[in-house]
TrEMBL record:
Protein's name in the database: Metalloendopeptidase
Gene: LOC108678552
UniProt entry keywords in alphabetical sequence: Hydrolase, Metal-binding, Metalloprotease, Protease, Zinc
Source species of the chain: Hyalella azteca (Amphipod)
Presence of the UniProt keyword Hydrolase in the record: yes
Domain Peptidase M12A: 1-103
Length: 107
């Protein structure tokens, strides 16, 4: 699902320019050569949709972690909150609808 959404034009949720308002990145726990996966994407388009902690396009807490017990990503609202998901969320669906101009037609 994640790769299909990339093909449809969606980018990583944890790379949004506003991500530091929502999550913290533990740069010291990222495997060597993997830091680029967590860089902010200044070309990211918000589409007026809020940050989605559960998005298929959001990496999990332990993605590319040297030590998975510490993790790499932490939600600022709750240090133990799960991040990312395997199921298309309502916000993922809205992003696709807005991106392809069919949001109003679906409501």
């Amino acid at each position: 699902m994640h790769e299909l959404l990339h093909a449809l034009g969606l980018r990583h949720e944890h790379s949004r320019p506003d991500r530091d308002l929502h999550i913290a990145v533990n740069w010291n726990n990222i495997k060597p050569g993997s830091r680029h996966h967590f860089q902010v994407d200044n070309g990211y388009t918000f589409l007026d949709i809020p940050y989605d902690f559960d998005s298929v396009m959001h990496y999990g807490r332990n993605a590319f972690a040297k030590n998975s017990s510490v993790g790499v990503l932490t939600a600022l609202t709750s240090p133990t909150r799960p991040l990312g998901g395997a199921v298309l969320t309502e916000l993922d669906r809205r992003r696709l609808q807005v991106l392809y101009g069919c949001y109003n037609a679906m409501h």
